[in-house]
Write a structure and sequence with these properties.
The structure is a homodimer of 120-residue chains. The first copy, chain A, is mainly alpha-helical. Chain A has four helices and two strands. Chain A has a single domain, classed as Arc Repressor Mutant, subunit A (Orthogonal Bundle). Chain A has a two-stranded antiparallel ribbon. The structure holds a DNA duplex (21 and 21 nucleotides). Chains A, B: It comes from Paenibacillus physcomitrellae. Chains A, B: This is Replication termination protein.
DNA sequence: GCATGAACAGATTGTTCATTA
DNA sequence: TAATGAACAATCTGTTCATGC
């Protein structure tokens, strides 16, 4: 097992949550997460967001649709990729969340111990 | 900056502490840390221990001496490598600890937030 | 600048292998 | 088995580049 939780897994949790709340395309979620994590001094990199989304699709949790941003033609023709849960995507996601929670708790245990041991 | 704290940096903290307490060779420290982290389900890999020690030497914080284990000849001729702080090693270590603390706190902030956001 | 994606390079790490006593 | 070290392979990640609107 890896020492620490992977950034990819960490981001997947947040992306699943954002898709669940119907805020659903890559660039927007990236910007949202950037804002959300600014206080923690963490800037999620663009490449990881897209890689995480692609993996969630490959894993059969999400699927993609394409849409023209704005909807009204003549206004904005930018094409965006929206994400939605597949039929059994929610169950799969729940399973995945469970796995990540185990890993997250393990990491917190390790890091909290280090914090106590060296900087208490 | 990397997403999470590196295992190497994490281990260096513990190795510096063990050397400070005069428990000082690789294999022994490895076994000690294995025992210490058993409850957290973390098994520090042998290779990382040695790599971390080598780096601490390269960074001028520690230096090495060699010794025959047991001391008494005829009993055990296994050669072991002991580690000690250099002249200004303690100061350097203190500086390093400070840096790692910053990183550690950043990681804890991120992971605690995730824990709250998804599993509260 | 918004939006998506790929490519490339580097660092970290886990496993295995080698050596000696 | 204890002890140290190196080699190898895989993964992850950060940066940069490419494309289109």
């Amino acid at each position: 097992m890896a020492f620490m939780i992977a950034q990819r897994a960490f981001l997947k949790l947040y992306l699943l949550k954002l898709v669940e709340e119907h805020r659903g395309y890559g660039y927007q979620m990236l910007e949202e997460l950037k804002t959300e994590f600014a206080p923690q001094g963490y800037v999620p990199p663009q490449s990881e967001i897209y890689r995480a989304l692609h993996e969630l699709v490959q894993e059969g949790i999400l699927y993609r649709t394409k849409k023209l941003k704005g909807g009204d033609p003549g206004v904005d023709f930018q094409e965006i990729v929206l994400y939605h849960f597949t039929d059994n995507g929610m169950e799969k996601a729940q399973l995945y969340r469970k796995q990540v929670k185990t890993d997250l708790d393990r990491c917190l245990g390790i890091l909290n111990k280090a914090s106590r041991d060296h900087f208490s």
